[in-house]
Every structure is written in structure tokens, then in C-alpha cells.
Amino acid sequence: MVTDKADGACQLHDVRFYNLLPRAIVCSSFGQSSRKLALARDDGTIEVWNMAYAPFLEKTIPGGEGVSIEGLAWAGQRLFSVSLAGTLIEWDLSKIPCVKQSILVTGNAAWCVDVSKDERLLAVGTEGGYINVYRLDNEELAYERILDKQEGRIVCCNFDWTGNFLVTGSTDAVRVWDVRNGHAVHKMTTGRAHNKQETTVWAVLVLKDFTILSADSRGKLVVYDGQMGTVLEQHLVSTADLLCLALNEEKNIVFVGGVEPIIRVFDRADSGGSVRTDKLFVRSHNRRGHTHDIKTLATYGRYLFSGGIDGSLLVTSSPPFTLDTHFPLLPGPASMVAADSRLVLLKYVNYLEVWTLGPANAPAPALGGNKVLQIRSKNDDQILAAAIAPNGRWIVYSTEHIVRLLRYDYNRKEPVNSRLVRVRNTPEHFAVCYRAQFTADSKGLFLYDRTGGGTINFFSCAAADDSEEWDHKQSIDAGRWLSEMVTLSAVSQCSRYLVCADLASSIVVFERTAAKWKRSISLPRYKLPPTALALQPGRTRVAVAFSDHKLFVYDFDQFAFVFSTYLRLPAGTDPNHPISGIAFDPRHESAMVLQNGSKIVTLRFGPDIEEEVLQQEETSRAKKWRPVANGSEQQDGEGSLTKCKLRMVRDAPRLVSIEWLGESELVAIQANALSMVEHLPAAFRIKRYGKT
Fold it and tell me: Residue 518: CB partners within 8 Å, gap ≥ 6?
């Protein structure tokens, strides 16, 4: 949809035909030392989220056909996963994520994994009833022992606070194991709701005083005395299965989730009397936000992370109660606008789509937006990176195994006569990559090598008679200055500058001199990794935003900060979401558009704004009002501007990206809400008396 333009405003293209499918979250684990959340989706993809400030997706480990991750666990900075293939995998998260070591466990499919509180031992529960215990020493994973075999699969496990005992949940029973000798100390039977229907214990949790909590398929939360092996109390929480448990940092609140999309909160009752009421729990309140089954819970400070069938990562906190939703979008860049040809490239899990945009001055009924091309990856492999040239003539995509370069001859008058040809005579260094980007003139292509060496391969298109050939011009050794994986990059409008930023907060500007790319400057390093980056058209200025809402504009030709501030987002925005997109306004030197979660925000700065805001501050202090300025007294870059004006201009649910198209058109790409809902299974329903 093209929104009509008012005086002094721009036209907004609401792209709502990005039909992403939901990808369920099946398990998660939070690393206290790294302050990162790892979660696995139903397609085998593992996502690592940085939760230190505003949550953002750091890295993605692609899944594949038939891959099923059933458990995740952190041991310091080390991440482990188990799958139904019967493998225990340690992941190397430095630079490009890859498998560090893989071990086949005894007992076929692996269902659960847990690490002891002292990070000394790791346990894996399997389909065959075996518990595999490994020792974590000196960055190594060594086999320790296998505990006594039990009948039936081990669905869940949790170490006690000493690391000497392990509690497991299975069919009709909760067991306590002595890890030192491998024998079961207690077996607590759960009972059954119906005589012939087994009870599955889906989650167990061990408290510091050896109180054990279990959540099972009867919908009951059961509290046990782990030392005596007896039941202390039971709570009927739901008529459906309870699937997950979590404990807050103070160890006095338990969160329960299950098939019913409501998180129940239980507080520990502590009367201080002689009766052992300190081991009893009372229901406190409920938290809502999910639409389907809740399969995993994790906590950090006052925040609770939850995920399930609907695929959304919810971050809630109380008091006061706040709810932030992170929809199951693909890692960026997931969409790209070919400005010269008015085409939009949309990336899906295993295919690409190319759509047209409506004309600039078309009335609202003339929506435009037609799908002209769909490209499916070879063997339906997951697409890691994709890009389209600004002129729409070239499309490149890469999976874990192959990379493809395609020439697209788009016929605007007769789209059915458009032609797509695969370029087969690609250069030798045209290899798989995790990021791809064309230059503004469509004659250059950057492929970010996936081998982990930090190499950026640059290719150039040379026109010879009627043919166009791509040649490898240079392998840029970016790893000398970028120690981590490049997550953000931008190419200048003149195709002379390339700016790259990695997760180690290194921001490097490369300049093209003659036929070679050379490092020009490294920007001052900030304490946090950047979340958004953009180059100002026609200028040597780069804008960078960080997860704590720090934002600066740096002129790398003058080696000086132009603007630097900590943003105080206006009312109605998403303060717990990072700035995930920046687009400079081509009509104004000191204006830009920001993407904050699902909100589109405008920012203006400059000497006139600085003076105006300072006057407002003085007036506010004189009248004892609260200042309305944006910014902080502690700023990087002496002499730079620090004041700005922010205004929320639009709420765009499920916003994926924003990008300028020409001088007065802004493209906002949103995920289709209907496509994320209509493919979900039926939600849990309760028959209410007197209601249909």
C-alpha cells in the first residue's frame, strides 16, 4: 500500500506481502555468565540472543531437514545441544558458529541435557533409559560414567546445587540419582489421572534445599522432599499438560507453563513458624501473551523469557508488568530493495521472492505489488544470505553448501516474458558465504567468506560486447581488524566506501583506491555490539546504534563525531527493543528514520535543534518541570552535538526493515500477520459454562 504524501512528508510503501511461516520454539537455555539466551526452533535452527540490554539476535546456527534439537545447556561460554539423532554437540560460537565436537550418546535419541551449577558435570537423558554423564574440564568434554539403566525414556533432568545428585523425570516416576556411584536413591511415583493412561513428567526443578518440583501430563505441579523421597504437596494447575518450569534468581518464585497458553506464577510461602511451610507454594498470578502451547521458560534478573508453538519470544517482567514480543523473523538482512528497478527481494527459509512496488504517485486503490519471481534453493537447503543488485539484474544467494549467481532480465511491460539465467562461469573464489552485498552501481559484489578467516571477496562485473562476466578482484583480509563475525555492513552511494561492524564492537571503513580496497579508518570502539548501521548518501558520515540506545554519527573523513547521544525514546515506542534500522533522509542533512521494534521513529539533530532543546531545558528548569530533551551529559566525542528531537510517526506491526526509495519514498517491509497465524495448529480451548 502506498500512503498519500502530505506537504513536507514522504510517501510510505507498506509492504505487507512478506508471508513468513511460524517457526516454533522447542527449548531454550540462558547463560548467566554470557548473558545470552540460546533457543532452538522446530526446524533445527539455533538462535543466540544477546540479552544484556535491549534483546537482539546475535548469531544463528542453521538447521536442516530432519534435524530436531531437544535440549540446550550453557557451561560458562560453552553451548551444548542434544538431538533425536543421539548426538551431544558442543558449538564453537567464535566468529562463524560451527560444530566444535560431536559425541554419540548411549541410548539412542537424546531428550534432555543439563549442566551442574558448578559447571563440572553434564548429564544427557536418552530414549533407552540411559543417563550419560560427562566431565567438563579445561575446555574439554570427557566421558565420566553411565548411570543405572531405567525402563523407558528419560524426558527431563536437573542437577541439584551440589552437583552430586541428579533428578530425572520419566513415565509415571521422578527419580533421584547419586551421580558418584550411578545408583538411584529415590523413586517417587506420580500416580495417574486414568488407570490406563500413563503420566509423563515433562519438567523437573531442584531448589537449593533439595525441594523438587515436577510438571506432568496430568496438569499437576508436584512438590517433593528430595532427601526423604516423599510428596509434600500437589497443585492442579491445568486440565492440560504442563511442559516447563523456571525459577527466579531469588529462588522464591516458580513459573509454570504448558499446553494452556498461560504462565502460572507460584510464590514460596514462608511464615517463619515451626511448621515447614517454607516448602509450600501458593499461586500468585498469571501472565498472558502467547496464543499456543508454551514449551520453554528461562529467567534472568526480573525478566522471564518464554517461547512455544507460536514462535514468538516473549520477555515479561513484574512489577510493574511489561510485555515485549519478538516475532519469529528471519535473521537479517531478510529483505532488500532494488531502488533503480523498484523491486523487492524477500528471503524465506528455503526460497526467495521478488516483488514489484507500486508507482510513486499512484492513488491508494492502485496498490501495485506483484510477485514476478520465485527462486527455490537447491535441495530445499536453508538460505543463509541473499542479495539483489540495485538495478535488479543480478541476484545472489548462498546456502551452507552452494552459492548461486543469477541474471534476471525483468520485462516491466510484459513480466511473463522476463528471463532468469544462472551464471555458470563464476570465478574461483565465488564460494559459500554468510553475507552478500552489491555496490550501488550494481557492478561490484561482496561475499563474506564462511570459512571463519574474516575474508571478504570482492567481485566486479565487466561488460564485454553483449556478455557480462564477473571477475574476482580482491580478497580483503578484514579479519586483521574484525575479530568477530560481521553482522552489519553498508556501501556508500558512490561505491567508494564499505563500512563493516562485528559483534566485538569493531567498526572499520574500507576505501576503494584505484582497483584495491584498503582499510581507511577504524571507528572508536564502544562497550556493546552495534545493532544498526547506515551511511549517509553523498557524505562520509556513518550512523551507528547500540543495544543500550546509544547512537552517534561519525564523519570518517574529518575524524570527528558529528552527533552523539543516548536516546530517550518517546511515548508509544518500544524502549525494550533496540534500534534495528537506520535510514538517512536524503532530503535533509540532519534527519534520519529509525526502526525501533515495530515502530518507525524520526530523528532530527543539528545546531538549530541543539539550541531549541537547550532553551526548552532552561525553561523547564525555571518552571520546575521535567526536562524534555534527549541526550546525556556523558557523551563520546568532545564538541559533537548531543541534543535531538524524536517523534514516533507510525506503528508498523511485525516490521522487518525500512529503506529509502529515491528522494521522497520510504519502504517499510512488514511480515504478514495472517500467514503467521493461519498455519498454526488449533489452540487449547476450555469450554465455559454458558459460552459457545
Answer: 510, 511
- Ranges of residues in the chain whose predicted pLDDT is under 70: 1-8, 270-279, 361-368, 463-467, 620-640, 687-692
Q: Are 487 and 434 in contact (CB under 8 A)?
A: no
The grid coordinates listed for 332 are: 537479517
Quick check: helix, strand or coil at residue 675? helix
How much is the pLDDT for 71? 97
Does residue 320 have a cis peptide bond before it, meaning omega lies within 30 degrees of 0?
yes
The single residue listed with the C-alpha cell 534472568 is: 300
CA distances from 122 to 114, 145, 158, 436, 550 (A): 6, 11, 10, 38, 39
| Largest separation between any pair of C-alpha atoms in the chain | 94
- Ramachandran region, residue 200 (left: φ > 0; alpha: ψ -120 to 50; beta: rest): beta
Alpha carbons 674 and 416: distance in angstroms, whole number: 28
Residue 150 confidence (pLDDT): 93
Residue 359 DSSP class: P
Q: What HEC string does 184-215 produce?
A: EEEEEECCCCECCECCEEEEEEECCCCEEEEE
pTM of the model: 0.93
Q: Is 571 exposed, middle or buried (0-12, 13-18, 19+ CB in 10 A)?
A: exposed
Q: In this predicted structure, what is the pLDDT of residue 273?
A: 43
Give the contacts of 131 (CB within 8 A, at least 6 positions apart).
123, 124, 125, 146, 147, 154, 157, 166, 168, 177
d(CA 312, CA 309): 8
pLDDT digits (tens, 9 = 90+) for 289-322: 999 999 999 999 999 999 999 999 999 998 888 9
- Which residue stretches of 402-551 are H helix? none
What is the C-alpha to C-alpha distance for residues 619 and 130, in angstroms, rounded to an integer? Answer: 72
DSSP letter string over 572-622? TS-TTS-EEEEEE-TT-TTEEEEEETTEEEEEEESHHHHHHHHHHHHHHHH
Which of 587, 596, 490 lies closest to 543 in space, CA to CA?
Answer: 490
What order of strands is seen across the sheet that includes strand 579-584?
A: 579-584, 591-596, 599-605, 644-651
